[in-house]
Amino acid sequence: MCVQGLFFLTVLSGLAASAVLQVSGMRIYTPGVLEAVNGTDVRLKCTFQSSHPINADAVTISWSFRPLIPGPEESVFHYQQRPYLPTDGSFRKRVVWAGDIMGRDASITIRQVKFTYNGTYTCQVKNPPDVHGTVGTIKLRVVATASFSELLLLALGIGGGIAAVVVLLIIIVSCRRCKRRRQRQLEENEEAPRKDRKDPTVW
């Protein structure tokens, strides 16, 4: 009985430990796939959740890049108390810190993307003692021109904005007309009794 009880307790403790490991740990969220037009800026969005309170002085963020063609992995960006931009390599003077540690945002912006930037970008965040967990990845596709879906969305956005402005102008003009009509009615109502009054000197 003692051996069975000990075995049962061991199994329970193992299950509890695995549950704790699943609950704890760093969780990172990225869009997965992005498309950017050659020569434009693109924001690589990366947000995170930690099972421990965020310590801005201890959080570290690392971005790396692996090209589509076979080649070594390249460091893109590092953050530890402050952003460290690449001083050499293909991303020199191309990366901008676009995140907010306390806002759980580890995003960066790459300026004027080139076709050589096609590949997979990896975002890793550590918030000690929370240093284990998922790693976020983004597959960036740099294209010569925007795809039809993006152009359609852009057209819909512009069209929607113009339509909203037109509707607003119509509402404003209609309100002004109604106001003028009411003012005219009030003036006419005030003048009518005056006309109906007789001159007391006339018999």
From TrEMBL:
<feature type="signal peptide">
    <location>
        <begin position="1"/>
        <end position="17"/>
    </location>
</feature>
<keyword id="KW-0732">Signal</keyword>
<keyword id="KW-0812">Transmembrane</keyword>
<dbReference type="InterPro" id="IPR000920">
    <property type="entry name" value="Myelin_P0-rel"/>
</dbReference>
<comment type="similarity">
    <text>Belongs to the myelin P0 protein family.</text>
</comment>
<dbReference type="InterPro" id="IPR013106">
    <property type="entry name" value="Ig_V-set"/>
</dbReference>
<dbReference type="GO" id="GO:0005886">
    <property type="term" value="C:plasma membrane"/>
</dbReference>
<protein>
    <submittedName>
        <fullName>Myelin protein zero-like protein 2 Epithelial V-like antigen 1</fullName>
    </submittedName>
</protein>
<dbReference type="InterPro" id="IPR007110">
    <property type="entry name" value="Ig-like_dom"/>
</dbReference>
<keyword id="KW-1133">Transmembrane helix</keyword>
<keyword id="KW-0472">Membrane</keyword>
<feature type="transmembrane region" description="Helical">
    <location>
        <begin position="151"/>
        <end position="175"/>
    </location>
</feature>
<keyword id="KW-1015">Disulfide bond</keyword>
<dbReference type="InterPro" id="IPR003599">
    <property type="entry name" value="Ig_sub"/>
</dbReference>
<dbReference type="InterPro" id="IPR013783">
    <property type="entry name" value="Ig-like_fold"/>
</dbReference>
<feature type="region of interest" description="Disordered">
    <location>
        <begin position="184"/>
        <end position="203"/>
    </location>
</feature>
<feature type="domain" description="Ig-like">
    <location>
        <begin position="39"/>
        <end position="141"/>
    </location>
</feature>
<dbReference type="InterPro" id="IPR036179">
    <property type="entry name" value="Ig-like_dom_sf"/>
</dbReference>
<keyword id="KW-0393">Immunoglobulin domain</keyword>
<keyword id="KW-0325">Glycoprotein</keyword>
<dbReference type="GO" id="GO:0098609">
    <property type="term" value="P:cell-cell adhesion"/>
</dbReference>
<dbReference type="Pfam" id="PF07686">
    <property type="entry name" value="V-set"/>
</dbReference>
